[in-house]
From TrEMBL, chains A, B, C, D:
The lineage of its organism: Bacteria, Bacillati, Actinomycetota, Actinomycetes, Micrococcales. It comes from the Bacteria. GO terms for molecular function: voltage-gated potassium channel activity. It is found in: Membrane. It holds the Pfam family Ion_trans_2. This is Voltage-gated potassium channel. Keywords: Ion channel, Ion transport, Membrane, Transmembrane, Transmembrane helix, Transport. InterPro entries: K_chnl_dom, VG_K_chnl, Volt_channel_dom_sf. It is a multi-pass membrane protein. GO terms for cellular component: voltage-gated potassium channel complex.
Amino acid sequence: MWVMSRLEVWEERTEWWLVAAALVFLGAYATPIIWPQIPADVTRTCHVVVLITWVIFWIDYAVRLGLAEDRSRFVRRNVIDLVALAVPMFRPLRLLVLLNLITVLNRVGLHTMRGRVATYTGFGSLVMILVAGLAITDAERGAPGSMIGSFGDGLWWAAVTVTTVGYGDIFPVTAAGRVIAAVLMVGGIALLGVVTATLASWLVERVSTENERVETATRAQVEALADEVRALRAELATRSEPPPG
Amino acid sequence: MWVMSRLEVWEERTEWWLVAAALVFLGAYATPIIWPQIPADVTRTCHVVVLITWVIFWIDYAVRLGLAEDRSRFVRRNVIDLVALAVPMFRPLRLLVLLNLITVLNRVGLHTMRGRVATYTGFGSLVMILVAGLAITDAERGAPGSMIGSFGDGLWWAAVTVTTVGYGDIFPVTAAGRVIAAVLMVGGIALLGVVTATLASWLVERVSTENERVETATRAQVEALADEVRALRAELATRSEPPPG
Amino acid sequence: MWVMSRLEVWEERTEWWLVAAALVFLGAYATPIIWPQIPADVTRTCHVVVLITWVIFWIDYAVRLGLAEDRSRFVRRNVIDLVALAVPMFRPLRLLVLLNLITVLNRVGLHTMRGRVATYTGFGSLVMILVAGLAITDAERGAPGSMIGSFGDGLWWAAVTVTTVGYGDIFPVTAAGRVIAAVLMVGGIALLGVVTATLASWLVERVSTENERVETATRAQVEALADEVRALRAELATRSEPPPG
Amino acid sequence: MWVMSRLEVWEERTEWWLVAAALVFLGAYATPIIWPQIPADVTRTCHVVVLITWVIFWIDYAVRLGLAEDRSRFVRRNVIDLVALAVPMFRPLRLLVLLNLITVLNRVGLHTMRGRVATYTGFGSLVMILVAGLAITDAERGAPGSMIGSFGDGLWWAAVTVTTVGYGDIFPVTAAGRVIAAVLMVGGIALLGVVTATLASWLVERVSTENERVETATRAQVEALADEVRALRAELATRSEPPPG
């Protein structure tokens, strides 16, 4: 029987609380970016909420590190978590926790490999565009020479970038913006790759099903035949002995 | 025997009428966009024709919904139809009905999976570029700062966008134009994916045919052999019994 | 025995003459584009040579059409040839004859499917960039607002376009230039697709070779076994009969 | 037994010295590019170090050519080395020696085909972006109309180019810069292809594992069965002979 480690028990129990924290973080992070003319005290509240979720994620990370059996392996495997927690610029990466929402979709009944890949890709792309749009608007608005004046511009830029179209009507001019863009471009290449690979895998399978009219012999089938022959031999042995009697 | 549902009978019977309605819609939609200097009453007639085809598509949707056995499933499966009917900006999506024209091509003799995929991709890309070119010209011409002055510009922009080249000589500046662009970019990624996947599937098959000189044993073959052995055993049983006599 | 049709005999015999004609055409077509300050009479000579090769290609097409058994099928299968001959703007397409040079490479020893695909792709891309660079320089130089002043600019533009990078420092402004660009973009998508598909097919094969330690039973093997059993049964029949004697 | 040729012995022994020389070259090549305000004598020292590593690579090439059994084949197989040594503009290609560092990663335990491909791609892309960023900054800074003022700009341009996004905020204006860009674009297409192919190969395998619940009969299995039948026949022969006695 497969017993869950204490780390896995913790991760399963806290999963939904972290998704909730990420959604709260998303709201508090997005509000002052989408509506910059918001009253100053709302903005301040939002910053406090962002800080609180940040502390929650740190506590979760610390507990998980404490529960892990092989700690150096845990740190290596969760480098992204650490980066997202430690570097203020990568705060939006914390939203990747939202990918856990996909488990709900899985329960709805996507049991095939390709179905899961397609769901992750679609949902992940939307989260990626949304988060990149927020982050770039946050990083660029107000910078000298910036072309991004609103969240709409940020979203549009994210869509143009992730699809590798790159018109050049909007491009980041700050160092933080360029780092966000580089991450998004890598995401775009991965997106293209996943879409193509899923289609190719589907097509390879369909075509091979079409071609294969020949069913290959199974191992079980040959084993049954071998049993038959062995029985025949045993029978022959018993039948052949009486004659001398 | 497979009996068609009433919904399928309706869809088969109305198929060509809808394609005809879509072609009429295309003409009436495209005319004032391609020739903006057309007399005002021609433009008005076009708008009326567009409205009539819109009503026809609504009626068709209502009848299909009425005939469907599982209505909530029907709505879920035909979300694109509903969006194309309800949101004025997505009117051009109604032209997707033109994809039914491919069934003609299928009758000409494309029976393989890959042949069908290639035909859909080629025809679908052309329809997509044409429709996107019309829609962006409609949305952008006359907008302040717009770079699209004619249908030719719109077509050129659509080709540059769908191939993800994205020079940036022309890009949408209105919200409606950006939405059209986002849809087209997703289409471009899908196009790239389908082209690559079709080629990969073809090449995987060709290479595996080249490598395979070994024919694998079939299930039928092993079954025939098992019959042979069983017959042998039966024969042995009948032959071995006489001796005691 | 497979007998060549008269059309195939003609095509094999003229193959090298056509490649030679295409090379002469390339030289005569490229010279006034690459060196626009060339003396007027050299330019005139080049135009005459281009005209002569054009007539040669027309004669070849006519002879092939005359020799074809199914003429309407021949026309359908050679649409590109006809377009390249009839439309002045598509003259450079005649250079596709140069792809026959690949047969030389094939003789050097590329016998695998993938080797041939890779060779065609590499050589075809180079020809495509070269030809597109010449054609765009021809079409755009001197046009109002044009950004292409030399063959070097044209080559650079072709490389930026075929890889779908599309900086937008140079883009066509004439209708002819846009048509050339559209053809090149389609070529770029095909190029990306072929590169990816070749790599994917290679990797799928390598990985499946790595995984497969199990050799599947062959048809011949099971047939030999069936022969053995049949012989056993025959022997049993002859041995079992004597006892009563 | 497989005996190493003298060339292979040399290559294995010098491998790490060449990697060290490449790292020294990287430092000496990069320093004046990244910090252009460096004192003149440091710059001069760097140039001398670059020259020394260049001589070392020439000596290595000469020794390997001397040890090779088939010299014309050696030259053909190592064209890139020769180009990197002979053409000053391609000096950075010498950094490709750094790819040998991957053998360290291999020792850490990447034994699967796909693991190796992924490692080469990731590491190779980083080296490619770094080297292209250095080379373009070297080639473009100070050129009239150049948009690249610092190594940061160069890196940003390399990332935008290799992912085929191509905003067009920065593009090369010198001939050397355009050649570097063309090489990087080809690298970008290859990168896209490798990422997609690796994903596709992984997915094809996972899906085929999912589908295959049937284990095919193995050759060994059928052979064992044939032995059984042959034994049966032999036994029958010995048993059937006594009766006449």
